[in-house]
């Protein structure tokens, strides 16, 4: 069999470690080359050194002046909420009642679900996001629609059926038994089929009975390489509600802990109102936090505490949480993450933010070596980022004096316009239209 070899020239950046804890966190080649063989990274490094290794007839795609970086990973997003992004409400719980539940009801209709899934994936790819951890709705067909669409595009995606059997409208309610049965069927149908991975997805503790959480935990034990995703400690009113519903639990996250849902590949959205013991448990169990700054600011939920999370050694990543989040762009998510950190008295360098949106997320998902950087053998999911995408970016980045300044300008001023092209497993899946 002949190898399909492709090479891409540009300024190349990827991560090897967390910049907050390592001096040798990243690999940067101003004039770099990425070599892709059969959809996987074969090599990444200096153009001068690597191009001599290419067979004479290899086409070199020239992205000089632009950055080649791993595709972004969004670790918490709701595809059914694409159509209700930017819907105003006074906080999380009224927002769920007024907009979210009626919107999710429509996913009973498979045609509607397929249509929104296509739009959602287009939007992710336009923003340079090549992997996401995705909430579907309570309807199993919403999961089939999503994975069918992502499989057709060959994308590495994680998704799951929302489980909720109380405190929600009848039209969105499963039962403990039906939720578990449907989840198991979907795991068997989709988990590790092609690039699809399944996430067991109880929405959040208030909408699940103890029996449902117990069954979710049992599935998490029976299928240890599946993912778990849920919300925790997002909003103060929600936390008070959980205290009422689970008076015997030490804390909100302890509810999940007591049902065996803290383990590697568990992704907890928000994690704002945690205490020290909660953070310790997250670190001990390698459960990960999906930090959702645009959502937290929009819904007025609170400010994530980067310093305390780092002190405890919690696995961190960034996420949009659309439709609570206000942008599909991980660059815009970094923009708001930076400001959240400042308001909490911490400082988040741009280098760290790009790490969190790539290798940090892959590590949080136990997928290092598969996605998140350009290590040899990794899947070639990468993006071409244009520092001259807008007049303002062009002016600002022309004056940059360091890599940090370049990345910072992209994070603060960039969005979907800065993504010139997106590649998944070596195939171009988005190219920005220029006027
Ligand atoms: N908590 C429970 N469900 C949701 C949701 O859909 N979005 C957000 N942001 N928080 C939630
Ligand atoms: Zn969410």
Automatic annotation (TrEMBL):
Keyword Repeat: no
Cofactor: Zn(2+)
Pathway: Purine metabolism; guanine degradation; xanthine from guanine: step 1/1
Enzyme class: hydrolase
Range of residues in the leader sequence: none
Coiled-coil stretches: none
InterPro entries in UniProt: Amidohydro-rel (IPR006680), Guanine_deaminase (IPR014311), Metal-dep_hydrolase_composite (IPR011059), Metal_Hydrolase (IPR032466), Metallo-dep_hydrolases (IPR051607)
Family from the record: Belongs to the metallo-dependent hydrolases superfamily. ATZ/TRZ family.
NCBIfam families: guan_deamin (TIGR02967), PRK09228.1 (NF006679)
Record-given protein name: Guanine deaminase
Species lineage: Bacteria, Pseudomonadati, Pseudomonadota, Betaproteobacteria, Burkholderiales
Gene: guaD
